[in-house]
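Attaching the record inline, Q. Sequence:
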Amino acid sequence: MQGELEDATESLADALIDLEPQEKAGQLAWLLIYRAFTAALAELLHDSQDLFNQDCLDDATLESLTNILGDHLDGLEVSIDSEFFRKPQQLPLLTEFGKSMQQWLVGLSLPEIQAQALVQRLPDKFVLALHSEWLKDSERYASITAAIDSPFTKAAQQQRQWLHYSAWLREQVNQRTFAEAFSLQSVYVPLRAYYEETPKEAKHRAIEHEKSETTRYVVDLQTELTQWVQHFNADDAVRLISGGPGCGKSSFCKMFASHVAEQIGIKVLFIPLHLFDLSADLIDAVGRFVNQSRYLVGNPLDAKEGESRLLVIFDGLDELSMQGKAAAQVAQEFIDEVLRKLDHFATQKLQRQILISGRDLAVQANANKLRQPKQIWHVLPYCVPEKQREQYQDLLYLLSEDQRQEWWKKYGQVSGKSYQSMPDNLSGEKLAEITCWPLLNYLVALSYQRQQLEFDSDTSLNLVYQDLLEAVYERQYEGNNRRHQGTGNLSFANFCRISA
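Structure, as predicted:
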């Protein structure tokens, strides 16, 4: 399907414009936008093809979409300046074409709510495609550069690469969630967390082997870490996020990376630790990781050529600790390496901060190395029972909100359901153990939608877990012969054995 659309749009572009070297910058700008747009459409439809009945995506149907795009572009007065390259996702064409595209998708029998979700992802796809198209044929588009002096407000090539990478970060939170049409950003609920603080006198008693009086302070995690990023302190340049599996650590890291790059304007490097060499020198390992990226070159941590202001997010310290004692040792050595390098950066007046996420055990193993206040944040669930709230100092009364209600409302909006809050038969105490955590709460939603299990006060957790497994497994058979690449042709019995 992707090849068919690309061929059709490329042919249309060549037929509409046959540019000579001396042609005007405006015509080249038109071609740049057109080709980036068609590439974004092709990738979006290819990524979402499992949502469609494949019989409806014939050549004539695909060509109709390119004709719609052509009609919009024919009436578009192309005006490119430095602001366009700084915020290309605000191009008016995206809004106007999105309306027609949504109608086109609905005409292919796609539910309106899914069509809307796909159209919302188009701007981020367009930004990435725009950068790729420019880099692919930069010499041809040089006259645009000359016409406006520089396409990125006179920024250097390195700055343009960071703009490209920032767009990629934003696209990560707009990717489809599991097999859904909607994205993480559509249903994301901001996380709450707590940090522990021990009064100085309590610390003294602890040294004398008396009981320490530790207080847990509740905060909005993004708000606190945003302040940490904005107010750089060389003595407080590393933070750890701790939490169990499915608590939302990785989702938060992706959302926070995009937030910092987009809203605060500080360069962010996001590194999943399962793709990173923790046994190597930190600077060398970051350089090798970046060299595998499509969007960045060089080494952001290099003292001479790197970035003086940078946030690095390492996600997944827990995966190493799960691999056994040797890997746990590697994780501890990695923390030691991070602290040493941050001290070294500070002596050179480099403002670099590092955020690391990991499961509780992985973080606890390194807690004695992080002694500054607020260096370790423990993720809290969507809901905390009232009788447990007395364990915390909740100065902003954050725990009084049951965040499951907000999640279900968002889920109702993007899934086309009528939920305004969490269904009553799911909100009981018995199910709170699983519905209070983001991932399991989503799986419960899948189970609830299947209507194969009667949810009531007598529903046991074992029955719920059994139905959750069936819900995950049966996603591959849902509508239009959709198949999940991960499970393939496994029987349910073998799927359960692997999942256990």
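Strands lie at 192-197, 215-220, 238-242, 268-272, 309-315, 351-358, 376-379, 392-393. Residues 150-156, 204-211, 476-485 have pLDDT under 50 and may be disordered.

More tomorrow.
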